[in-house]
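ERR on first pass: missing label on line 2. Operator R.T. fixed the label and resubmitted. Corrected input:
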Amino acid sequence: MDWNFVFFSAIKIAVAFAVLMTMVAYAVLVERKVCAGIQDRVGPNRAAPPFIAAIPVIGPFLIRLGLFHPLADGLKLFLKEDFTPAHVRKMYFWLAPAITMIPALLVLAIIPFGSNLGTTNSKMVIADLNVGVLYTFGIVSLGVYGIVLAGYASNSKFPFLGGIRASAQMISYELAMGMSVIPIFLLVGGLSLSQVIDYQAGRSWDSVTGQISQFAPASLFQWMIFKQPLAFAIFIVAALAETNRMPFDFPEAEQELAGGYNVEYSSMKFGMFFMGEYANMVMSSALVATLFLGGWTLPWFGLDHAATSLWGGLLHIAIFLAKLGAVLLLMIWVRWMLPRFRYDQLMDLGWRRFIPLALANILVTALFLWARA
Amino acid sequence: MIVKREKLTFWERLYLPAILGGFKITLRHFANTLFRGRTAARETAGGYYPETPWVVQPGYRGAPYLVRDQDGDTKCVSCQLCEFICPPKAIRIVPPGPTGPVPDRPNAEKIPSEFEINMLRCIFCGFCQDVCPEEAIFLQKDYSLTGTSRADMIYNKEKLLALGGTHAGVQKWKQKLEEAQAQDAFPVKS
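pass 2 clean. output:
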């Protein structure tokens, strides 16, 4: 066994997990701040640990930013009473939050969040699967079980309705989402996410020998968002629906379902749903950044090639995180901009607009490739 | 009534104009909040609550307190009407009995030996104020009552009188005294 590999992978997993959890916590803060700004409020600006408040100028500024609210919120969730109602089906009730959380963490395994740290055997991806995106869709569709189980196990009306809505919605948009990315893999010629990133930097992998060759100069217009804008639009809307975000947040529509599938949950079990939702958002953003925005590459200053030094590697990770953050911000922004769809409109949009459009997109791309070959 | 729905054009049915319009509006609000500090609270009330206290409007029903009359004497005569009317049973009055304290106000027969309002129970309905024949209890402007224990939130007579201040009102007993004195006066005015 290659102990070096095991050790390095373990470190990668630990760091990526820690970064993901931090992003989840601070995505909540960004969400609250952004929504406050849009709604003419100031947002969270009170949590003030004493040792921070004592720092002269910087302390009050950090407190105004609300940087300590995620910590306070986490602490609060841990200290709340973990209440299990008597009428629930206990096993599924306990299982559901974990099932919501875990798919997001599993998807993390195949996201290439950087090139390498200067040496060729330090690739910044936990598992570079050659079936990358199949794995993703397989895992992501497990996410719906968490919500459906929560709705079923809660054994009460509103969660049940939330669960039903979740299953219908997520299955519908799963299809549109899966079909929207097929043109990308037709263009790239492979399913590995590293291959997709290489394609967007103008490199292609030979399907037989695995030789990497530059087929086009690196440019912004190699990015899939410019080559497949329709696929991008469908994917990002389907991603909003998959992560139960506005304007598709039917499973937890507060005004209609009093909170939806997680009504009966409290304390850290509710926290798991909450974190799972945001972790799913972060992972969806990571997928969008990888599939459509060129992953860790930038077409300038030679940043499209794998790093040759430690600092270059860290720069690539920063580029990836910046792209991820931009997509995440877009997803958060949309929530405070658009009202919720009506349920039949949601189904109409999924089945009668996006799926035919995605199919047409596949056909057009395939015909284009066939004509070119 | 039948509302005629306008037929949407193709461009409108793409949702794109609505989405762009949404971005425009939200960006404008976000920029105004972020860079000019124009928040709803600042525009309407001048700032946020703990720093900028809320201005209480006349007629507001805040916490009920006991008031003193123009001479600084206790107005309450321990009739217990407020205690009986109080829907959440927040008021508790101990009447003086034969050996209790003597009223500090001339003409009054009684004074409560203890008068407590449990502010945790009080629903600020104002029935006590309506029912009081002596105008001795008024809902005032306090809306933020805090304490560190349940016992802290039970206000006793001293505290209620101190918080209540004076309220001359119609000065019923002063008029009664003047009437009585007028009846003693000769010759009787027609």
